[in-house]
Amino acid sequence: MATFSFAVMLLVSLVVVVSCFIAASAGDFHQEFDLTWGDKRAEILDRGKLLTLTLDNTSGSGFRSKREYLFGRIDMQIKLVSGNSAGTVTAFYLSSEGPNHDEIDFEFLGNLSGDPYIVHTNVYSQGKGDKEQQFYLWFDPTENFHTYSIIWNLQRIIFMVDNIPIRVFNNEESIGVPYPKSQPMRLYSSLWDADQWATRGGLVKTDWSKAPFKAYFRNYNAEGCAWSNGVSDCASKTSSSGGNNVWQTQALDASGRRRLRWVQRYFMVYDYCTDLKRFPVGRPRECRRSRFL
To answer: What pTM does this model have?
Structure first.
């Protein structure tokens, strides 16, 4: 127990350092995003440094990036809905368009006051997902801002919380597993009512007496290959251009693999790869390989 507590304290210390670093490269929400739905329930404040989404019993709200990306690293600091957030979902994801779309998901499933949020992750390729993993967090995500990151390159997708990996989805096309690699995606975020399934499978409903519900976003940063008119701007970039291209080949080192094991040992609450009832005739192909590579 002492070792576990020390690990939590060490990771929290690292979180503070990483959050401060990412905050130094914050984007302007006016320049980077369009408010797409919810009327005035989505607002950009503080001269473009803060964005808020609101959900009430009439509507939720959402926004999307002006740019599309084909691979990149996306960071966003988010403070989730506080108090009794049961039934609400705050979504933060990359997605292309169309029925055969690709998608990389973070979804934060609200809960009753005092109960932990569940972080729901999924990967879609050519319109098919069914690759869910869910986690508790090792902190209260409603008290302060925390950084949620998606690293997407040709080799793998890494989901990170405060620069700590919680999930890696590797490119396993060599064994017939589809991988999102050809459709450019925008970043989307929304706050919406999903009480038919979000909390305890829909058993706990949204308490509208606690509305309006509000989530906060700041310090957006994107390093990636912007897509415009069918062309990626990475084709014209070079390593001498001064950009940070680490994400293009980023993988987990030994320290990252240790952190991933820690998260998945203590905080994972669902893994599609171990759901034998769902796959009675055999696990998906990618589940037969180590998820820590």
So the answer is: 0.89
